[in-house]
Amino acid sequence: MVIEGLDGAGKRTLADGLTTALGAKGASVASLAFPRYGKSVHADLVREALHRGHGDLADSVYGMAMLYALDRSGAADEIRALRSAHDVVLLDRYVASNAAYAAARLRQDAAGEVVKWVWELEVDRFGLPRPDAHLLLRVAPAVAAERAERRAETETGRERDAFETDDGLQRRCAAVYDELAASGWLAPWHVLDGVAGVDLEALATTLLGQ
To answer: 2-209 adopts what CATH topology?
Structure first.
């Protein structure tokens, strides 16, 4: 199960709450978050580039997307092992993040060439495990930005990066996420209200029954 959404949408909070709700129903749950900062050289290059390291690397849409994809490719065996050992594996961001942000940066929609390229790279070429479902935590871009800014002020090491501070990018990304969800891209999507709150018990029941 993949949790998707804008920076500041509350994905980590949802993952923690859903883990507790699934566990209460007797499910064994494992989780993994992307990018795998501190664990993957590709993820660390991403973080450095987003804070203006490595020259103009962050300006390259395809270059950054490749680093994100390589980070996930390096975790493919771990994901498969977790799926074998647990009832549910929760991933905080996955292939759809790459598709949404790359398309938004290039001002393309979900039917654009870069979304197709991400699928061909990560799913067809790298052979990443396909998810069973996406959970899109939907919030207005302004709300997500406010949360991300507050998080940066209160949590050490969570300074906003070049993508998080680009309000136009976040708005375009939200639109692409909606299009991906509407088309059922890669796996079925469940759209959740990130402002009104999520009924975690009901969501856990739905996910375990699908």
So the answer is: Rossmann fold (3.40.50)
